[in-house]
Amino acid sequence: MGDDADAAVREQIAYYRARAGEYDRVYDQRADLRALTPLVDELPITGDVLELACGTGQWTGRLAARARSLTAVDASPEALDIARKRTAPAAVEFECADLFSWRPSRRYDTVFFAFWLSHVPPDRLPGFWRTVADALTPGGTAVFVDNGPGEAAAEDVLADHPVPSVRRRLDDGSEYRVVKVFHDPQRLVRDLAARGWTATVRPAGTGFITGTATRPA
Q1: pTM higher than 0.85 for the full model?
Q2: Which pLDDT belongs to residue 2?
Q3: What sequence ranges are listed for the domain Methyltransferase (predicted)?
Q4: What is d(CA 168, CA 135) in angstroms, rounded to the nearest whole number?
Q5: What is the SS3 assignment for the chain?
Q6: Starting at the edge strand that comes first in sequence, how are the strands of the sheet with 108-114 ordered?
Q7: Averaged in consecutive runs of 10 residues, what is the pLDDT profile of the chain (217 residues)?
Q8: Residues facing 144 on adjacent strands
Q9: Rg of the chain on CA atoms, in Å
């Protein structure tokens, strides 16, 4: 699966770079998605915060309002340009990097990621959670928001692919394969427990999940 996962991740990065100018439209079109972003105010966002896969900054401004400091990482320079403009004048340190090769240079009290966990190929999940653990201070918390199983019906799911994937189309008609794993909350809690995390994952609306995960200090 490794080679196919590598190819899927490369295509996924290309998709989000090409989609940067179109990305925010989905928040204009979907009331349930707009209603989800205020949930950040109810989640345990504290101290020095790291945001993974920040995209165009839809969540970044709310995180900055809660954080002592905020570092935001994404693989798309085009999306980061939009995020910088959206969050100004908030003091956010932006970094452009592929999250599958990026390693944290310091530790944070909170690591946040929205709609990213579902884009991690299954064979890369152990490495991703190790990166999150390396980025957290002892007793720190990972906080995430994502699509749940109910969202699968709205996607063009590609059957019989080695890596769970969906097909996405852009305004110019181009098509991309994007990794998409619709995590079941209970199974995700069990999987995280097997990796040493204590997690709580809850449905949010009909198509989303929110979660927190900690490791023993």
Answers
A1: yes
A2: 63
A3: 49-140
A4: 31
A5: CHHHHHHHHHHHHHHHHHHCCCCCHHHHHCHHHHHHHHHHHHCCCCCEEEEECCCCCCCHHHHHHHCCEEEEEECCHHHHHHHHHHHCCCCEEEEECCCCCCCCCCCEEEEEEECCHHHCCHHHHHHHHHHHHHHEEEEEEEEEEEECHHHHHHCEEECCCCCCEEEEECCCCCEEEEECCCCCHHHHHHHHHHCCCEEEEEEECCCEEEEEEECCC
A6: 92-96, 69-74, 48-52, 108-114, 136-147, 208-214, 198-204
A7: 84 97 92 85 94 97 95 98 95 96 96 98 96 96 96 92 95 97 96 96 90 88
A8: 113, 211
A9: 16
Q: How far is CA 91 from CA 10, 71, 114, 211, in A?
A: 30, 9, 20, 26
Q: Alpha-carbon distance 182 to 146, whole Å? A: 9
pLDDT of residue 215: 87
Closest to 71 measured CA to CA, from 22, 157, 136: 136
Give the relative orientation of helices 77-87 and 2-19 as an angle to the nearest 10 degrees.
Answer: 50
| 51 phi/psi in degrees, rounded to 5 | -110, 120
Listed residue (143, 117, 112, 126) closest to 50, CA to CA = 112
